[in-house]
Amino acid sequence: MTTADSQPTSSAPSSSSTEIAWSDDARRAAFAQWLAVQAAAHGLDAASVRPASADASFRRYFRVDAADGSGRSLVIMDAPPSHEDCRPFVQVAGLLGTAGLNAPEVLAWDEAQGFLLLTDLGARTLLAELQAQDFSTREGLKAADTLYRGALDALIGLQKIDAQAQVPAYDRALLRRELDLFPEWYVARHCGVTLDAKQAEQLEKCFELILKTCEAQPAVLVHRDFHSRNLMVNVDGDATRPGILDFQDAVWGPVTYDVVSLLRDAYIEWDEAIQIDWAARYWERARKAGVPVQEDFGLFWRDLEWMGLQRHLKVLGIFARLSHRDGKDGYLKDLPLVWRYAHHVAMRYSVLTPLARLLEQLGDVKAEDGYTF
What we know:
Radius of gyration: 21 Å
Protein name: Aminoglycoside phosphotransferase domain-containing protein
Oligomer: single chain
InterPro entries: Aminoglycoside_PTrfase, Kinase-like_dom_sf
Shape: globular
Strand order of the largest sheet: 1-2-3-5-4
Structural class: alpha+beta
Number of helices: 12
Pfam family, one: APH
Keywords: ATP-binding, Nucleotide-binding
């Protein structure tokens, strides 16, 4: 999972490309040479290049304006080949575009140097649009509902793509490696807790239950980071076609993964009644579209919760790792919401009680009230 601001999401004043920080002079020179060629081919103002966003990985993004003053812009991805493999991005972008989804089109790609020229999906994320709404009003809630319905419809379009042979499998081994980030980075490194033998055994049993439930789900194309920071508000105002970003880690895996990524987003929280309403609307439309969801909504919701638990335990580990290993402390402010998501599900299902108690020990909070199944 790359997480957070992983594609261009904010405008910045125009500045000279020489003001962009580079790791070495050789890469600066290579970029300048490549940009000159692209500027001539696509009618760009090379002097207008400015930062658009950074990524939780080694990727960076810049914007560049058209030279004709039309206001049109394109996006440049800087992805050093020694750290980033752009082939999955290019491949999945093609899959999404062919399916009619609103994803960046790759206009030019220097594979050897890791420079890509992309169409620009705009500068306003779904999260920014939501944060601008007043949810105490009917209009604000209606706007959010429209945006989420559009995002879920786009997700159904993504899930209908037959890409099993073209992306990696989201198999047990990968799911387990992700879960292992929780004890390694959140429990041990972030919380400074060493599990005793009993706690380790109980956590292992909970992990096995989670893996078993996730593995049993029908499989589709999974974006793997389908949330409010990776969805862009359509510049044409069409809520049914949100821009889709950060899809390079797509896999073939559990059908509920992207749904819960959106509804239980690490960056914005919704009441469970609203989550269920959106999930039910998605479920109805997905069934009609032939997406292999459970026939019974109750079972679908259970699958969604358990899949979300796997994701949120992973995210606790990833956010802790980003802070302690990579020095990116900005993600720590999002830990409490992710913790609440994980604790909520662990409390709801009695077989996960040991996990709930461990989370309480780590988070130093009291158990919340809630239904138990």
